[in-house]
Structures are given as C-alpha cells and as structure tokens.
Amino acid sequence: MPKEEGQFEQGRSGNPAGRPKGARNRATAALEKILDGDAEAILRKAVEMAKDGDPVAMRLCLDRLIPVRRDRPITFTLPPINKPADLTRATHALMQGVAAGEITPSEAAELSKLVDAHVNAIKTADLAERLARIEEGALS
To answer: Quick check: pTM over 0.85?
Structure first.
C-alpha cells in the first residue's frame, strides 16, 4: 500500500533533532520571568501564612520540605527461589506478610513482579542450558 502524503516512515521522527537538552517549556519560562525577583518574597509570605495556620499554605510548605515518599526500603525475607517450583513458596510468604501486616498489599504486588521476573530468568537460563545440551548431542 502506498504511503499517504505527509506521513512519516515508521520508526522515524518528524523532528529527529527534537527539543534540545535543557530547553525549558515556554509556560515554565514565562512563569520564571514573572516570578523573577519576587520568588523570595512569595516564599516568605507562604511561610508566614502557614505559621498563621492557613492549611493550604501549610500543605504547600510541607510538600516542599518533606516530599511524599513513593518507595521505602522494606525488610522482608523471601524463601530462596532456585527453580520455578519455588514460586509457590515465595507467593505464600508474600501473602503471609500482607496478612501479618509486615508489608502492604502494594509492596507485595511490587515484590511479586520481582519474583516473577526472577522465575522467568531462571526458566530462560534453564531453557538455554537444555538447548545447548541438545545441540551438543546433535553435533556429537
């Protein structure tokens, strides 16, 4: 099927150079110009308002001082996973950890993804090993 006029080839950008590194968004640059010189006074005012009990100003200040933590290190012991059959022990340990309150359900979900990736790596390595043995036997 012929290419329609104005379309780009698949896998090729219409702007290969793209935005230069460090280039600012126009809106961001405009806001920076507006705030230029006043940022310190605005910050002081927000802190004053927070000290006076303004809940919005408090939240603004706290969000900047102590950002919301997205991930946290957890200490959780999983049984060794050396073969795909070990997956059930690992998932059982994760479920027990959630039930006991040691880890949150979302932490268990993230750990499950890691366990799954590890099991897939084991399967892939095992398959490569078996294939190499078959090829060796065929060449002998």
So the answer is: no
